[in-house]
From TrEMBL:
GO biological process, one term: oxidative RNA demethylation
GO molecular function, one term: ferrous iron binding
GO cellular component: cytoplasm; nucleus
Protein name: Predicted protein
Signal sequence, start to end: 1-20
Binding site for Fe cation: 194, 196, 250
Length: 314
């Protein structure tokens, strides 16, 4: 078994041995609390000298990791308001057809899962509980690991503009995301180690936004033999996986109990957002939106739209 798998399962088995919901996290890189890191972790973690000039990004701390060129984490990038906004979008808008969800293949198109669930519809409640992902822009076909030529839904401008701003500040601009996967994690729904390599444009990063419960993200190497590093990702963080890091195995090993920030909790949130906070708290939820630029340029995109999968740049 490769070191990646040992690493992933190592964490998971430590977890189950020690305590069901909170593992021994001594070796997890924590850029939110630098004093909690082991000397070894502090050697890996570097604060980037990259300066963000746009107002929203001013004063944000950006971290890089030695040995992972092109991999950055921006701490607390999204304000609480932005996070609530994107929870709302992720629940009310993104899972609606024609976007595909994990339910589509088996159950066909299902409209307004969240709205109907809040209104008390039992079948919608069941679908909502099992909602694991939905896709935006070019819809992704999980079995063939390809983007659908014929299933393109206008990519949300707000995610596109936000990611372009981030990418430009990291010297990855201009960035035109054409697809995104929205993942709905719960305490029992994690993500195994994988590499995202279905995009024709691999020189542009994956830009990944974390909202809700704190998670343990594993970043491995380009083969499964590299032991992964474990890193905490918290609500509001943004991860940028570019450069060689774009080819690295990665996954989510744990969702941690009682880590939803107060501003997303039912007790503290503005009453008009209580329904979203209830959803987040019910199963220790974490929502992740990760955007990808699929095509190198407009010409390649048009060729794909006309003729189907491109092979030349892979
Ligand atoms: O949830 C995350 O932070 C990572 C998601 C991911 O790796 C993916 O969707 O490919």
């Amino acid at each position: 078994m490769g070191k990646w798998l040992v690493g992933l399962f190592g964490i998971v088995s430590v977890v189950t041995q020690i305590e069901a919901d909170y593992p021994d996290t001594t070796n997890v890189i924590d850029f939110h609390n630098l004093e909690n890191n082991t000397p070894e972790n502090l050697q890996v973690l570097e604060q980037s000298t990259m300066s963000f000039t746009k107002e929203e990004l001013l004063s944000k701390k950006i971290y890089t990791f030695k040995g992972y060129p092109g991999f950055y984490v921006i701490k607390d990038l999204m304000t609480p308001e932005k996070q609530i906004y994107w929870i709302k979008q992720a629940l009310e808008t993104y899972p609606n057809p024609p976007n595909i969800t994990n339910h589509t293949m088996k159950n066909g198109e299902i409209l307004d899962i969240f709205k109907r669930s809040v209104e008390g519809d039992e079948s919608a409640k069941n679908y909502l509980k099992k909602l694991a992902w939905c896709t935006l822009g070019y819809q992704y076909e999980w079995t063939t690991r390809k983007y659908h030529k014929d299933k393109f839904v206008q990519f949300p401008h707000d995610i596109g503009n936000f990611c372009d701003l981030i990418a430009c500040q990291c010297n990855y601009g201009p960035y035109k995301p054409e697809a995104a996967i929205v993942n709905f994690y719960s305490k029992d729904r994690l993500m195994g180690g994988h590499v995202d390599d279905a995009e024709y444009e691999m020189t542009k990063p994956i830009i990944s936004l974390s909202i809700g419960s704190k998670s343990i993200f594993l970043l491995g190497g380009e083969t499964r033999d590299t032991e992964p590093k474990a890193i905490f990702l918290e609500s509001g963080d943004c991860m940028i996986m570019g450069g060689r890091a774009r080819y690295c195995f990665h996954g989510i090993a744990r969702i941690l109990k009682d880590t939803i920030p107060e501003y997303l909790q039912t007790k503290f949130v503005d009453p008009k957002y209580k329904i979203y906070a209830e959803y987040m708290e019910r199963d220790m939820m974490r929502i992740n939106i990760n955007a990808r630029q699929v095509f190198v340029d407009e010409e390649q995109k048009q060729d794909f739209d006309t003729n189907g999968p491109v092979t030349s740049s892979q």
